[in-house]
Amino acid sequence: MGRPWTASRHLCLSYRDEDEYRTLLTINLLAALEQGERIIYLSGDVPVDVVHAWLRDTHQGIESLVARGQLLVRQGNGFCEVNGTPGDESVVDLLDRESAVAARAGYTGLRVSVTRTHLPRDDLLGWERLLQHEERFTRLLANGNPAGLTLTCQYDQHLVPEHHLGALRQAHPVALTAEEAARRQPLLRADALPGQRGLRLSGEINRSNLVELSAALESTFRGDDDIHLDLADLHYADVAAVRLLAQTARRLHDGRRFVLHCPGPIISAILRIYGWDRLPALLLSEGKEAEGKERACE
């Protein structure tokens, strides 16, 4: 299925309005968490407390991420502008140091997302310097420097003339609009069910992300409650993924149940073909979990 775009090391993402900006914010956070990275988010003109509030709408553990240092939000473009001029050697040195800090803390890498709102406007030379800056980072990151760094550059389409935006996009190995990025999010997303022990799975499950699914399921085993999986937004699961669900059901004893809500025709058929639908702890439900209440699958 190819290498996910979020694994690329230098990206150009563009947005048109606040909703698209928030979409990119969420995608950047999820990409960092899925890959075990530390994330530094430079929010441009958006205040830090506003960014935190937006993130709380999509992720319940923002405070813990901030407290342990995995997430740092700063207002401005600080890492990529030194005395108002991008591309200074001290920027590279600073990113190198921050990457080393992330590695020592046990993270797989450092993801820096820069919202570029301090732009040259009508200064042609300024646009040329910015373009050279982006081209330089593409070369550095292609050669593995700084080690473990992923740099995401975000541009407001209303602030960048079309011809300049086109050149900036070409300077990056991967360039996407917010709409394109939203369609190409990481394959699997697992969110806690509010008021219920279990997970809401969305996206796709296959052999490429079984480790992620296994870790997510493991987190639900604490306690004696039934485990619920809401699968209404899961678009695809292969046999290996369904086998993992069956293995999870086999681990439950003492009357605990593994409830699959809205399993859909593919998962239901695989369970039936392999006989896993007859496992004592496994229960298939045609109702979707919503705030602890069941409603019909769509």
TrEMBL record:
InterPro entries from the entry? MEDS_domain (IPR025847), MlaB-like_STAS (IPR058548), STAS_dom (IPR002645), STAS_dom_sf (IPR036513)
One family name in Pfam for this protein: MEDS
Domain STAS: start-end pairs: 186-275
Which SUPFAM superfamilies does UniProt cross-reference here? SpoIIaa-like
What name does the UniProt record give this protein? Anti-anti-sigma factor
What organism is this sequence from? Allokutzneria albata (Kibdelosporangium albatum)
